[in-house]
Amino acid sequence: MNIFNYHKRLLSLLCITLAVGCSKPADKPADKATEPAANETKPVVIKRDDKGSVVVTVSEEAQKRIDLKVEELKPAQHVPELAAYGTVLDPTTLITAQNEIAATTVALETSRKAATRAKSLFDQGENVARKTLETAEADVRANEIKLQSLQQQIALEWGQSISKLSANDLQTLINDVLASKTALARVELPSGETITGEPTAARVSTVNSEQWQTAKIVSRSTKVDPKTQGEAFLVECNSASLRPGASVTALLQTTKSAQQGVTVPESAVVLFVGKAWTYVATSTNAFTRTEISLQTPVDGGWFQSSTNSVKAGDSIIVQGAQDLLSEEQKAQITID
């Protein structure tokens, strides 16, 4: 997704100098217990904890040089959303159908008046043949069938919600679309994902933008893409930036109940071996590289539910995380 556009910073290499130990008598072998002391002078040391997670120990001097900043995660709430992808629809068929409906409506009213007058004259014994009355009544029926057919055509193409709009409301919608005040888009869930019931709300963004616009769920799509077979929805968004054919991403709310969790800021997220990670402080100088999920983008970062690996109260690196990852890889320490 567009929201996964990370801004990586270049790293300045740390200059590592090794301290020279005190001299020992030549006839005394080196004490193996003193060897780890040399490791302790390194600015970055890599180990694994008992769960197999990578723990990066960073000296205070190295932290200052990298300019690490740590913040505590605060409780957050998030209403679950599913990502759907699609395009802004061309309203030509809707406009054409609406124009035909308007013309047919006028013709229907005219034929009804003519049939009413013919019946009245026929009932009064005026000089009106039965065939003339039947012809007038047939015109009414023909216009009724044509109007119903046009409304069914809109229902098949655009859904029941739009087909049931009054003539004035439908014309208002079309006017807004023509004036670029409103856009109608078809968005589809990835294959295999479904929503029980109707989405409660939505927001939409173009592919090259991280600005989200509030959208309205119009209806479920009346068609299924034969290639993807995904569940699709028609959404209405009041945005002047959306044009027919534009690719969009929609986040569909699936429930009104909010999940409890935390938001990991974008600056705290690093990418490595195809996964997303953040550094969680386990002590003043030790940070555990912890995998997180990028399934739920929110403003400023990614939401992690209470079942994820980070929680409220954890302290994470929010500045210098990318630099620390680079230093971790450059440490060149074999991890058992």
Structural class: alpha+beta
> Number of helix segments?
7
Strand residue percentage:
25-35%
Strand order of the largest sheet: 5-6-9-8-7-10
At CATH's second level, what is the architecture of the largest domain?
A: Beta Barrel
Q: Tell me how many strands there are.
A: 17
From the structure provided, what is the oligomeric state, counting identical versus distinct chains?
Answer: single chain
- The termini sit apart by 36 Å
**Regarding CATH, which class of the largest domain?**
Mainly Beta
Number of domains: 3
Shape: rod-shaped
In the CATH hierarchy, the third-tier topology of the largest domain is known as: conserved putative lor/sdh protein from methanococcus maripaludis s2 fold
Helix and strand run:
HEEHEEEHHHHEEEEEEEEEEEEH
As residue ranges, the low-confidence spans are: 1-39
Main sheet: strands, sense, barrel: 6 strands, antiparallel, barrel
Mean pLDDT value: 79
CA radius of gyration is 34 Å
Measured as a percent range, the helix fraction is: 25-40%
